[in-house]
Amino acid sequence: MTPSQTRQEPVTVRVFTQRFSSTPRGARLARRLALHQLDRWGVPHGSAPSDTAAQIVAELAANAVTHGRVPGRDFELTLAYEPGCRLRIDVSDTRTERRPALSPSALLSEAGRGLLLVDALASRWETLDRLPVGKTVRAELDLL
User: Fold this and answer.
1) Which of 8, 26, 37, 82 to pair with 19, CA 20 to 30 A apart?
2) pLDDT digits over 33-69, tens only?
3) What is the CA radius of gyration of the chain?
């Protein structure tokens, strides 16, 4: 084989997307289905990546139904899993004007600590515009 013909392992990204009602029940269901899907992909319940992903999904889904809720509109969860490499968690809602941000006063506040948790658990996170309307909060976990 010449150097330009070396074999590379194919990268398979597994993706799961589901919409949920913007209610506390929808947020709980998002967390449960995320755990179930991760288990189907070979990330077992109770493992460190599974537990971390569950906490991130729970916080982002709770934020979507609490702060991003628009009556009559759902929120969406997308998981993108690259085995042995990375897990991307996207939670999208239809409220454009309320963007999440870390607040220095959140540590002393009774509310607003969810993003501090996401910031501590995720390898990185960001807020993206969602077209045609809304936003997506993306958190990534490096699994290396």
Assistant:
1) 82
2) 999 999 999 999 999 999 999 999 999 999 999 888 8
3) 17
